[in-house]
């Protein structure tokens, strides 16, 4: 584990960036992102560096990557400077950023709280100003949750829209690429490198998922609902028509089955060095009955069809990003598990339906940033980004840490 040191800025840097990453470099001095720096989660291959994925065995046994992941090449070719690779929850199995092997990155906007994961180092680096933007992955909330916890803008892209080649697979039917930034303009500029120019967008048809605001605790729902209503004319809908259970009962077996298929054999090898939480998670993934997976597949498609029909080409659904404030850095594993299950009720919506979601910083409660999210239809990133950029001025006067 990294030693804690007296200089706060150096400590943030030490706990955000891995020691085995590449030295800072860029491909080009020119390009649309040439004035920006970025960091990359240590699940992405960068040629010449080992991809350790937050695990000491992978760091010890891994060979330097022979090619850079296509999703990393995009900002490099656009002129951005790569400043390093960032820490992650072990093999991306986490929502908080707490890695007992390499340390927990610091949440610069709430230092006694978790930064959120699994894109924890990426969020920490951006929130601390050590990079202008950072790449991460999002399976069950790994971009959106750290964005909320650290007071950042975060984009989870439509499943399959950005290549996941050269990235460690955790749950292949859910894994997506996303990025974090401190402001919506930068988030949009990075997105244009992937998707092309984002021009003016028509005003969205807003739908506030009223029942979703009853899920958060500690006054979060009460604080976020009036903000959601201030975004513009909106209708209020019931997202969880049959309650939360059908969503979670669909998400769990599919995500766990994916996890077992990708990491089960590796994670259960004799002598494997795993944290308690990840060992328990992989063991759980081995117990999912085949019939539960088979039953969840058509349920997923039914949920997807309903949301896609609601959203159409112009709709956005507004929901809280997470159900609670960031847990404290010393929270036990049991508390982390309980937190994860409750926030999954919100994050599983876009994950199950494979839709894009943008997290925006909305307010501060008890000194902690709190995010609001918008979900759009398939390939609706341009609408999300344009709307978030327009909202920037509306949210600028709200208290921030």
From TrEMBL:
This is Amidase. NCBIfam families: PRK08310.1. Residues 28-196, 272-385 form the Amidase domain. Its EC number is 3.5.1.4. It comes from Kaistia nematophila. Keywords: Hydrolase. Pfam families: Amidase. Gene3D superfamilies: Amidase signature (AS) domain. The keyword Transport does not apply. GO terms for molecular function: amidase activity. PROSITE patterns: AMIDASES (PS00571). The keyword Hydrolase applies. PANTHER family: AMIDASE 1 (PTHR46310).
């Amino acid at each position: 584990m990294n030693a804690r040191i007296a200089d706060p800025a150096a400590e943030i840097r030490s706990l955000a960036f891995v020691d085995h990453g590449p030295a800072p470099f860029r491909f080009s001095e020119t390009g649309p992102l040439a004035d920006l720096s970025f960091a990359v989660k240590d699940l992405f291959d960068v040629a010449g560096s080992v991809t350790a994925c937050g695990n000491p065995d992978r760091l010890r046994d891994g060979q330097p990557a022979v090619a850079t992941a296509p999703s990393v090449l995009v900002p490099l070719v656009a002129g951005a400077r790569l400043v390093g690779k960032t820490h992650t929850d072990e093999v991306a199995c986490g929502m908080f950023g707490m890695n007992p092997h390499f340390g927990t990155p610091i949440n610069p906007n709430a230092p006694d709280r978790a930064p959120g994961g699994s894109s924890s180092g990426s969020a920490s680096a951006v929130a601390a100003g050590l990079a202008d933007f950072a790449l991460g992955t999002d399976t069950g909330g790994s971009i959106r949750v750290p964005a909320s916890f650290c007071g950042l803008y975060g984009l989870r892209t439509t499943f399959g829209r950005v290549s996941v080649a050269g990235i460690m697979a955790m749950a292949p039917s859910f894994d997506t690429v996303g990025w974090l930034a401190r402001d919506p303009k930068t988030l949009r500029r990075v997105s244009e490198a992937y998707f092309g120019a984002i021009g003016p967008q028509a005003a969205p048809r807003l739908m506030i998922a009223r029942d979703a605001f009853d899920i958060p605790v500690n006054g979060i729902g009460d604080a976020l609902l009036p903000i959601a209503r201030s975004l513009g004319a909106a209708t209020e809908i019931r997202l969880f028509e049959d309650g939360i259970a059908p969503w979670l009962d669909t998400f769990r077996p599919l995500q766990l089955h994916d996890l077992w298929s990708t990491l089960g054999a590796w994670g259960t090898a004799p002598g494997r060095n795993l944290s308690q939480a990840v060992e328990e998670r992989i063991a759980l993934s081995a117990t999912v009955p085949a019939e539960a997976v088979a039953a969840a597949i058509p349920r997923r498609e039914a949920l997807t069809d309903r949301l896609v029909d609601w959203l159409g080409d112009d709709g956005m659904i507004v929901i809280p990003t997470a159900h609670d404030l960031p847990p404290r850095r010393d929270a036990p594993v049991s508390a982390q598990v309980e937190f994860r299950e409750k926030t999954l009720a919100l994050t599983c919506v876009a994950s199950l339906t494979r839709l894009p979601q943008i997290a925006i910083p909305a307010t501060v409660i008890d000194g902690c940033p709190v995010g609001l999210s918008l979900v759009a239809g398939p390939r609706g990133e341009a609408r999300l980004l344009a709307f978030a950029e327009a909202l920037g001025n509306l949210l600028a006067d709200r208290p921030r840490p």
